[in-house]
Design a protein that fits this description.
By secondary structure, the chain is an alpha/beta fold. It has helices at residues 19-30, 62-69, 80-92, 107-120, 160-169, 191-200, 217-228, 262-271, 280-291; strands at residues 11-14, 35-39, 47-50, 54-59, 73-76, 97-100, 123-125, 131-134, 138-141, 150-157, 175-180, 206-212, 233-238, 275-277. Helix 3 (80-92) packs parallel to helix 4 and helix 6 runs parallel beside helix 7 (217-228).
């Protein structure tokens, strides 16, 4: 059991024939992902050979790829200028899940395609995210599959690199699914969406939630945990040492006054019964204590 992504998921790659698409398609295939097609209008009808005697067909549109393969997940390695149209195409085709890896997507574009996807019933993950992985089953995005293993922890994270660190730190226990939701001001899937899914997943026993300074997503997640989540949750908030008033690397990491600071988020989470580590390693130790 997992959330959003299983061994049965049939994945297409929008932008597969570009340099990033090719590199990460090869890595996804190597980790067991069932990639059934790529999409590039200029290369429709061709095939791409990958190591291990794997041949992946290229289709002209998402709709054609879905009709031919039954695909139910799309992962996008598309430049920012073309991301909106690529997402809209996936949504119009009725794709249930679209995972947008691209960094630097204009927020106005994200607002537009997110609203459109919500109305049409497509779940988006990202943009500006590492994707999601169900270890040992499927890996959609850029997460290194070799750093972790299957288990019963659910992970939701704003940060890509901290996702990788937590997967590695708790690799001996393992994960049901890890979702990197992205750090932009607007993202398609939130902490709360993942918390709800992990709460309802019988094979997830505990949850790690990673946030960062800026915005109020973690405070809203804390309120949701207090009212709806019965499984143990541990948290980490990146940015305790961030200088006040400074905009950090992620577009979403903007602090105003006390709202959005790491301390404010930590206090909100602890008030909801979440144990919060001061470092990723301390957070992993808290999870080990809970599960032991």
């Amino acid at each position: 059991m997992a959330i959003f992504l299983t061994k049965q998921s049939k994945v297409i790659v929008q932008g597969m024939t570009g340099s990033e698409g090719m590199k990460h398609t090869q890595r996804m295939l190597a980790s067991g992902t069932n990639i059934v097609g790529g999409v590039n209008p200029r290369k429709a009808g061709t095939e791409v050979e990958f190591p291990g005697d794997v041949t992946v067909p290229v289709f002209g549109t998402v709709a054609e790829a879905m009709a031919a393969t039954g695909a139910d997940v799309s992962v996008l390695f598309v430049p920012p200028a073309f991301t909106k149209s690529a997402v809209m195409e996936a949504v119009d085709a009725g794709m249930p899940l679209a995972v947008i890896i691209t960094e630097g997507v204009p927020v106005a574009d994200t607002a537009e395609f997110f609203t459109y996807a919500q109305a049409k019933g497509t779940r988006l993950i990202g943009p500006n995210c590492p994707g999601l992985i169900t270890p040992g089953e499927s890996n959609v995005g850029i997460t290194p599959a070799s750093i972790t293993g299957p288990g019963r922890i659910g992970l939701v994270s704003k940060s890509g690199t901290l996702t990788y660190q937590m997967l590695f730190e708790l690799r001996e226990i393992g994960f049901s699914t890890a979702v990197g939701i992205g750090g932009d001001p607007i993202v398609g899937t939130t902490h709360i969406d993942c918390l709800e899914a992990f709460q309802n997943d019988p094979d997830t026993d505990a949850i790690v939630m990673i946030g960062e300074i800026g915005g109020d997503a973690e405070e809203r997640a804390a309120a949701y945990i207090k009212d709806h989540v019965t499984k143990p949750v541990v948290g980490y908030v990146a940015g305790f040492e961030a200088p006040e008033g400074k905009t950090m690397g992620h577009a979403g990491a903007i602090v105003s006054g006390s709202a959005g600071t790491a301390q404010a988020k930590k206090e909100a989470l602890e008030a909801a019964g979440v144990k919060v580590g001061k470092t990723p390693s301390e957070t992993a130790s808290l999870m080990r204590e809970i599960l032991s």
